[in-house]
Amino acid sequence: MPTYRELIINSGLERFDAQVLLLHVMQKNRAWLIGHDSEAASEDQQAAFAALAARRRAGEPVAYILGSREFYGREFQVSPAVLIPRPDTELLVELAIARAPQAGHIIDLGTGSGCIPITLKLERPDLTVAALDISPAALAVAHSNAATLGAEVRFLQSDWLAAVAGERFDLIVSNPPYIDAADVHLSQGDLRFEPSGALTDGHDGLQHLAHIISAARAQLKPGAWLLLEHGWDQGAACRELLQQAGFSEVQTWRDLGDNDRVSGGRYG
Ligand code: GLN
Question: What's the pTM value of the predicted model, to 2 decimals?
Fold first, then answer.
């Protein structure tokens, strides 16, 4: 019988991925592995681990295999219908938490798993939070996450702001599809398994960002913030779009990897 350590070493996977998959099979946390890795794995455990390891070797993202990913300290259910939450997006959430006015009405566009609005509502219970997505399958995942985590968020199917035309918000946030369709990363690694409609606009990556900046003007209260996540090389373009659209205090913030990641401004 192989030990747990041998299962990990012989899996053909990166050590961290193999550990996470084994712990999922065992329903244990990392502390358990330290004390037990020289024990023998049962046949059932070996078979269950082998099945997950084969999926990972075929390229499937760990988050889809486990069905969940941690974001801002909470566990979110994910499926191939939604983008896997990224640590980079925690910057967008932090900026929104700091800028949303007391008891404000805020909205997230292209919500995917719902990790942004759900986190905002749980961190700032005073806020009234809405979230939109064009994909019914994504909205089903977001609904489920809100129910599991106990967050009151109003979800609507919508092509960007269309479903809430006429409403005005105290803050708009979005992590839209912003990858250039020609970017080679789309055909590499985990991104191959994520919904392409959540990653790229099919053009230069700026189409949805530009649409949101333009459409948001009619739906922000005076002085309200628009905060947008974007690619590491899109900060200057976003600032220019924001300035042309009449936003003030336009600026770009960097993520933990020191890349431009969020740009925003206030309207009116
Ligand atoms: N940050 C993601 C990536 O580069 C892209 C997410 C998005 O397009 N909104 O993999």
Answer: 0.96
